[in-house]
Design brief:
about 290 residues, alpha+beta, three-stranded mixed sheet, two-stranded antiparallel sheet, 9 helices, 11 strands, about 30% helix
Length: about 290
Amino acid sequence: DRSILVAGAMSVALLSGIAQSATLHDRIGAYVRPYASSGNFSGSILVVQSGKTLFQGSYGFSDVGQQTPNRADTKFHIASLSMQFTAAAAMRLVEQGKLSLDTKVGDVVADVPNGEKITIRQLASHTSVIIDNPAVYLNTYKFYPDIRPYDKEVLDALQSIGYRQTIPDRSLKEFFYNYLSEKGKYYSPGNFGKGSPGSTSSYSNIGSALVAYLIEIKAGIPYADFVKKFILSPLKMKNSTFFISNTNLKKHASLYYKDDLVFPLYDLVTYPDGGLKTSAGDLAKYVCGLINGY
């Protein structure tokens, strides 16, 4: 999954039937402090009950070198948690009658092997047999080494396992044509697992991102715009975005590899599967919104 890149840690808890907030606040603080002081936890914790904040705390640094402390509005890459938003967006189209979970990929996109059998439900549950081909998947990262200082050893390590930034695609449409169509530049039998759709399970970032592309087609607007219109804006998630170009870098946590090596900032060609940058506060708004049926 996308969890190889760690900016810190961000937790959101929604609780019911708990003790008084003052007691809870003290207990959480006492539990977390030893981990934070020993360097084993860095990030933000937010505990909410019925829309009321019971605990909020930030620990460690968003930039270790500059000793910039994490704050409640520090923005982190949340990696594969981004898939939650794909699921919510898909269900919004289901509510609108534009998709069903059993819609076939082949009914929306042409030239997909087994497209007449693969459903949105299978893509979302990682049973579609569309898999992450390592030769392609690693190169879906788009790094921005000139925006913020980083440690060259990180890119050297990625290049040693095959990263070449060889995918110039700018859109989901372009990428999925090249990955799934037999005429595509990245097409390979290695893009697909063994067995028939629904018969086997294999975690697939690319399969999840394909759901977002189907949403884009049926909605008639880019997936990022759909998420902003129907999720981020209604929930007032003003500290969330998929793209570095839209990010306030003063609030954006640095990324680290193996604790002390600074990772360059990045976006993803398949951004719906792991590209969202958000804060603990915004993520709490999202979870509360789901619970309340916004």
